[in-house]
């Protein structure tokens, strides 16, 4: 007997970008290539020691953390998240009604879509964008409208370009600054003003994905949408401990904002999952309330890598624009390779030199012609990658 076919929604989705790249990488490894990995934004340095010690202590000495966790997250964690906003942005967040811990922000995005989006509703996202912002729409009844961001519009969403018939049916508008994959930043809250004004008098919400809030360089400091005086009327903000504290594999993040939306998301999640393990929640409290020198040290590491990559790749003949935030360079294909598709360029570079990037097309149709390069290797590996890149380009 044949097994049933999977849903059309899943069938119609292309392979996830990192699965495609992993296949290329595995083929190269099988042929003996030494790999230097810049594809996924997967922190390569360990979780800070005091956070690891905290989870070990909770597992060993607090058996209540072995039981089912509470759906809304433990009170100390919700207090810690609210305290983080007060300390960093002087924003008052109610830990009981305006905070919800998540099993990572990616999971939280998908669950929000399922909580709010019906057949004729639209989700509006920039493109290129983090794949979960738009691919996940295929798994719920809603529809997607993509706004191109590119050099011409300085990688900023033009909300005026949304057709009125779509604007009237928009349920969720997604912002993402600092932006993944482009690394673009905003200097003020102008885009937040525009988005909230767009949301007024519409049955919709504004969501800001703030996962890279702590990875910024030079004299830049990212603003939060929660600083807007009307944020709690219309907005949610997602964040994660994955990048800020090198806790990607721990799967923990949060969402803050409008209490009614948070309450409905909490209700949905109560039927879908059991929340985050208690010992991981306790470690997250330690991360958010403890010494923040580990975050400062992480920023210095990434800034050193950013500068090393800019120098090494420029010497190889590839001029990049330095990002002011995030883990990523968003780079046009080198001049000698502009005739190639981004996936073709990535595969060829992996197979010939073992250097792994993410193709821009993996971040949506408007990402074609670019690659995303993550700062997840040491400065020595970055210098070696520059030598390999120079050799690769010399043969093109």
Q: What fraction of residues sit in β-strands?
A: 5-15%
Instruction: Give me the CATH fold name of the largest domain.
Output: Aspartate Aminotransferase, domain 2
Q: Could you say how many structural domains there are in total?
A: 2
For the residues shown, what is the average pLDDT?
Answer: 94
Shape: globular
- Portion of residues in helices? 40-55%
Total helices: the number is: 15
What CATH first level of the largest domain would be assigned?
Answer: Alpha Beta
Radius of gyration (CA) equals: 21 Å
What is the strand arrangement across the widest sheet?
A: 2-8-7-6-5-3-4
Number of strands: 12
Distance between the termini: 51 Å
Sum this structure up briefly:
This protein is 41% helix and 14% strand. The protein is α/β, with parallel strands linked by helices. It has 2 domains: 8-47 and 294-394, Alpha-Beta Complex (Aspartate Aminotransferase, domain 1), CATH 3.90.1150.10; 49-289, 3-Layer(aba) Sandwich (Aspartate Aminotransferase, domain 2).
Structure description:
The chain is an alpha/beta fold and about 400 residues long. It has 2 domains: about 10-45 and about 295-395, Aspartate Aminotransferase, domain 1, CATH 3.90.1150.10; about 50-290, Aspartate Aminotransferase, domain 2 (3-Layer(aba) Sandwich). It has 15 helices and 12 strands. It has helices spanning about 10, 15-30, 50-60, 75-90, 105-115, 130-135, 165, 190-200, 230-235, 240-245, 260-270, 280-290, 295-315, 340-355, 380-395; strands at about 35, 100, 120-125, 145-150, 170-175, 205-210, 235-240, 255, 330, 355, 360, 370-375. Helix 4 (about 75-90) runs parallel beside helix 12 (about 280-290), helix 5 (about 105-115) crosses helix 11 (about 260-270) and helix 13 (about 295-315) packs parallel to helix 15. The longest helix is centred in the last third of the chain and has 23 residues, at about 295-315. The chain is globular. It starts with 7 loop residues before the first helix and ends with a helix.
């Amino acid at each position: 007997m044949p097994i049933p076919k999977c849903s059309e929604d899943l069938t119609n989705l292309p392979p996830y970008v990192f699965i495609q790249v992993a296949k290329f990488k595995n083929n190269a490894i099988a042929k003996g290539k030494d790999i230097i990995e810049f594809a996924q934004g997967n922190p390569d340095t360990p979780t800070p020691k005091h956070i690891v010690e905290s989870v070990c202590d909770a597992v060993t000495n607090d058996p209540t953390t072995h039981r089912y966790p509470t759906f809304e997250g433990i009170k100390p964690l919700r207090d810690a998240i609210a305290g983080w906003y007060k300390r960093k942005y002087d924003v008052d967040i109610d830990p009981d009604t305006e905070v919800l811990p998540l099993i990572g922000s990616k999971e939280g995005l998908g669950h929000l879509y399922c909580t709010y989006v019906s057949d004729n509703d639209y989700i509006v996202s920039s493109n290129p964008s983090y794949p979960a912002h738009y691919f996940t729409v295929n798994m719920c009844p809603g529809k997607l409208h993509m706004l191109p961001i590119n050099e011409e519009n300085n990688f900023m969403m033009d909300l005026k370009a949304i057709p009125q018939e779509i604007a009237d049916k928009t349920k969720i508008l997604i912002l993402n600054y600092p932006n993944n994959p482009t690394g673009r930043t905003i200097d003020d809250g102008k885009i937040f003003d525009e988005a909230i004004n767009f949301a007024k008098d519409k049955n919709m919400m504004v969501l800001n994905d703030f996962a890279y809030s702590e990875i910024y360089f030079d004299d830049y400091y990212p603003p939060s949408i929660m600083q807007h005086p009307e944020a709690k009327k219309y907005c949610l903000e997602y964040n994660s401990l994955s990048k800020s504290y090198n806790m990607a594999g721990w799967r923990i993040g949060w969402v803050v904002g409008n209490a009614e939306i948070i309450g409905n998301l909490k209700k949905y999640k109560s039927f879908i999952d059991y929340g985050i393990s208690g010992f991981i929640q306790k470690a997250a409290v330690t991360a958010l309330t403890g010494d923040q020198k580990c975050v400062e040290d992480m920023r210095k590491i990434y800034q050193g890598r950013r500068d090393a990559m800019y120098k090494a790749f420029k010497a190889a003949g590839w001029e990049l624009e330095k990002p002011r935030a995030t883990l990523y360079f968003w780079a046009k294909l080198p001049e000698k390779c502009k005739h190639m598709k981004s996936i073709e360029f990535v595969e060829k570079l992996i197979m010939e030199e073992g250097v792994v990037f993410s193709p821009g097309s993996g971040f949506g149709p408007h990402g074609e012609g670019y690659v995303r390069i993550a700062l997840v290797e040491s400065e020595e590996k970055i210098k070696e990658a520059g030598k390999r890149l120079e050799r690769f380009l010399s043969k093109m």
